Amino acid sequence: MSIERLSYGLIGRLPERRCALALRLVRAVLALIAGAAAALVHPPFGFLPGLLGYPLLLILSDRSSRVRGAAWMGWLAGFAYFFVSCWWVAEAFMVDPDQAWMAPFAASLLPMGLGLFWAGACALYRRFKSDTLSRVLLFAGLFALFEWLRGHVLTGFPWNPAGAGWRAGGAASQFASVVGVYGLGLITVAGAAALAAPLLDGRRKTRVGVALTGLAVLVCLPIYGWGRLSNAQVRDTDTWVRVVQPDVEQASKWSPEAYRSIVERYVNLTGRPGGREPDVIIWPEGALPTTANAAFADGAWEGQAIARALKPGQTLILGLGRAQADPKATDGARYFNSLFALHDQGDAGLRVAAVYDKYRLVPFGEYLPLGGMMTALGIRSLVHMEGDFSPGPRPAPIALPNAPPVQPLICYESLFPGFTPGGAARPRWIVNISNDAWFGGGSGPLQHLNLASYRAIETGLPIIRSTPTGVSAFIDPWGRVIADHRLDPGESGVIGGWLPQPTGETVYGRIGDLIFWLGLVVMLGLGLPVGMLLRRNRAAPVTEE
Length: 545
Prior knowledge:
- Helices cover 44% and strands 15% of the residues.
- The chain is of the alpha/beta class and 545 residues long.
């Protein structure tokens, strides 16, 4: 039964004007349900029937009488999707009482903006759809294209792309090792959207065949993964790693009287006695509410406390802000969100073995897009952003004195595929330091863990995550959290263990998004020309001989 028949069956006895209004209301509610259902596929929910939200959105777009009607359906669905997925952004504004008033606006405005990507995909689908079942491929291709755009426009916000709906480390997620998370999203949406075929125009056998093909695609994903995981055996290196999670809430960092206790908490956990002395110790992003310039200045007590906590030969990885003199800058300095690798040389003291400056900054969090215009309009003062962080160079592996080469990713950067090089430059592991204290204790940290774990699947590299409040974890090269190597939100302690070995280089690690783009071109190529030719034929005048 079509949506129209079902709707008219419910409201068909109303007066004509009220009937039309009620029908529009029903369609709007269904669009919201479609987006919310798709969002519930992601952690912490894992509601796989939510994949039916994609075929429902296809039908709503397909049945829209106009392009703008399809755009409206897409925007409503996108708003619901991102409202469910990203409600945690409100938590970040609750940390500072002066910004708390912005929390409800942030929780609403972000989904409103991100919903435009879904609106664009649905509008183009409605504009160019054909009368054949190839429009299923067109819908999936356009949706995947706009998902990619969402991950790149204004530095991108690739939170919960469709492909990451499969739990990282599970069987279905393993195909990301071949096509990446965007390719996995393309396949997932295509398979799910095909389930709408029985409600579309076309021969019955063909419609059923398309639906069964889509179902087969979704079933084959975990089958491939089961095969890959059947040979997945974690092997250890000879590097022992300790991750420190002190459970320091974000709001407490700005209390001057609490500063010393924060440093002492990190230091005490770092030096906690254990079965084995660690080679590498990892603190999270923004571990201390100060800059590296102040913490490691001559005679600074913080640097002395850190030095006492380390033993000769150990390396400490931690995140701190960094100031760099620049006469061209407004206040004479540029600021970076940085990762430091400090090596204890014994009597020679601490040495900075490597520094990595965060490359992909968070819009409205670490920098203000279109900063000059925003400042002129008064937006900068409104959101309490006195200045911006500066981006560092594109991520590249760093060398450590007593551990294999590592690819650093700071917080937000773990959302982005493709930052870790392959070939001769391929590192042996990834370290992801993050400050998930901004996300609160709800779905945000769990989703961030899931998204970061996809970088392990794509690259075949283990990931070590450190956050101040959770989730900190050891993640194996197949995206699975290693048993007993995890600290959840609200837990304080350390994780110690052998650094896992990487797998062989994955297909995605060698060729990146090439398969995704080839699949996208094929789907759009099969979906677009048919619709255009049919429209051209219908518009051509009929001549008589």
